[in-house]
Amino acid sequence: MVIVIAGVSGSGKTTVGRALAARLGWEFYDADDFHDAANVERMRRGEALDDADRHPWLLRVRRLIEDAIAKRAGAVVACSALKAQYRSVLGEALDEVQFVFVHADADVLRARLENRPGHFAGAALLDSQLETLELPPDGLVLDASLSVDQLVDLIVSTRTLQP
């Protein structure tokens, strides 16, 4: 099984993903590591990526997910997965993929991003990410203001996420 922890920048998807992977004894991957250098630089300048910019990146993350499934290894992937079409690229025809969204209001997210030094996806990108965000109508959406332990407990206890 592969669990994708999704959400906009500042939602805590990497922190929650790392903690979840540690709890389950699974591998953790951050989709940010799969962006090409040009896109990282654009985001560092506060320029939002469009669908065409994101597509090759999503395909790289999809290959990672397929490899984990082929190896029958549990994995947790932190990935924004903002739109339904992005989630389709990542998980279409892969029953082993589950998406979990961590979400908070814009003020909470902005405060987190303003206090997060060194990451290329800063507060300047938040508005465009929130505009792009399509929360899944039937997916697991959790309050990002909960503690990391609470979020991990909720994810682990959700029956649909059991392998």
Tags for this entry?
single chain; 163 residues; alpha/beta; 5-stranded parallel sheet; 7 helices; 45% helix; 15% strand
Characterize the structure shown.
It is a single chain. The chain has 163 residues and is α/β, with parallel strands linked by helices. It contains seven helices and five strands; from the N terminus they run E-H-E-H-H-E-H-E-H-H-E-H. A five-stranded parallel beta sheet has the order 2-3-1-4-5, sandwiched between helices.
Strand content: 5-15%
- Give the helices and strands as they follow along the chain: EHEHHEHEHHEH
Mean pLDDT value: 85
| Morphology | globular
Model regions low in confidence, pLDDT < 50 over at least 5 residues: none
Overall SS class:
alpha/beta
Number of strand elements: 5
> What fraction, in percent, of the residue positions are helical?
40-55%
Major sheet summary line: 5 strands, parallel
Strand neighbour order, sheet with most strands: 2-3-1-4-5
Q: Total number of helical segments?
A: 7
Question: If you compute it from the alpha carbons, what radius of gyration comes out, rounded to the nearest whole angstrom?
Answer: 15 Å
Cα distance, first to last residue? 6 Å
